[in-house]
Design brief:
The chain is built from two helices and six strands; from the N terminus they run βββαβαββ. With 130 residues, the protein is an alpha+beta fold.
């Protein structure tokens, strides 16, 4: 029986994550595990305008993080969405689907009793790199 060596694990960060107690992403082989993203504008403030605006900013933050680490939205295979209020699921979905015109990744969505910074939505994903 042939044994292959385990894939390398690479812990990735960026200036956007300075001082936070986790990696922006972790690469294992050709998979990139992106930490949860919020709808913040980089100054620590959430996008004003409720769940739709936060979802749009969150997806833009995901797009930027994926690009920094060698992937893109069209390479996402799995998404997990955390919502502060499940009643906002449909409105979040209306924005979310616009980011996936050619495919819809596997996805889970769940309600959370609270999200960092009082966010309405947090989204994490797994994407292919290379």
């Amino acid at each position: 029986m042939e044994h292959s060596s385990p894939p390398d694990v690479e812990y990735l960060s960026s200036d956007a994550m300075a001082g936070l107690p986790f990696s922006e992403a972790v690469r294992v082989g050709n998979l990139l595990f992106l930490s949860g993203q919020l709808g913040g504008d980089g100054s620590g403030r959430l996008a004003p305008g409720g769940i739709a605006a936060e979802t749009q900013q969150t997806m833009e933050n995901i797009r930027a993080a994926l690009a920094r680490h060698g992937s893109s939205l069209d390479r996402i295979v799995k998404v997990t969405v955390f919502l502060a209020d499940m009643d906002e699921w449909a409105e979040m979905n209306r924005v979310y689907v616009t980011y996936f015109p050619t495919h819809l990744p596997a996805r889970s969505a769940l309600g959370a009793s609270g999200l960092a910074l009082g966010a309405r939505v947090e989204i994490e994903c797994i994407a292919v790199v290379g």
